[in-house]
Give the backbone structure.
Amino acid sequence: MRRFGLTTALVGFLLVLAAPVAGATSGEGTPANETALTIGHRGASGYAPEHTFPAYDLALRLGADYIEQDLQLTKDGVLVVLHDETLDRTARGPEENCTGSVIDKTLEQIKTCEVGSWFNEENPGYAREEYVGLEIPTLEEVFQRYGSGVNYYIETKNPEEAPGMEEELLRLMGEYGLTGPAAEQRQVLIQSFSPDSLRKIQALDPSLPLIRLYDEEEEDSETIREDLEEAQTYAVGIGPSKEDVDRSLVSEAHARSLEVHPYTVNEEQEMEELISLGVDAMFTNFPDLLGELTVPDTGGPPLLPLIVASGAFVVCAPLAIFGWLLLQRHASRSS
Ligand code: G3P
Ligand code: CA
């Protein structure tokens, strides 16, 4: 009876020990999107046509913290949201309106183009009939649709070719309540490959948080690190290509209070690697992926080996004592 009681106590104790061990090995940890912010690159552009309302809506539904806009300026001075300088890749419609450079077209011309068909052709797995006919949005239409309820990550594209782009961006942000306190809360991050464009924005409104992008072809970790001292004079973070991110870049950027937001990260494995390097956010065409990943908790001492060692001790020590007592008893009987 006494032996049964001892066995029950031991088994119970082992089960209590096993629970945290099982938890630690069954994928518990912190969701990756709590470790690094998710930037919906051109919206959820892996699933829907880039820079369209369906792509932005989906990015937000899938948990993106920011939706990205690439800006182009029309001939008549309107900011529209399109990645390429020209219409050729993604726009379809009357040739005179929907081919060539955006800067050479009026808004009226741009609005005759649609940007959904190309996506359906290129991505039959995600094609939808309702994508055909989607317009190129103006930045103002984006602000009208989403208001101050979402976070924007806006890029001045080809600003050298589009004088006045920065002023028009800041005018619209002011009109839609996205400067002042909203800027301080980082509701809008403004990014550019052009340091001149960023410095111009800083001069217009020093409170706006800016991100310095670095070109994948022209830069590497070392050249970016050499520029950090300069970048920290106007930016709150850097946007390198994922290929250029290594531990030294992240630590040197952080030492200068610059966040690191690599682009464009579409594979789970590269997301995990970048998170282990300590990046603060990442651009992705698939905003759901980051939310599905779990990052192992690293805080505190390594618990698993500690628990296993304690368990082994608790099990073995009584057994050893019990065995020793048996031996003693046997020895005294036989003497
Ligand atoms: O803005 C970050 C990333 O989007 C830069 O590359 O060419 O997609 O604008 P791109
Ligand atoms: Ca961009």
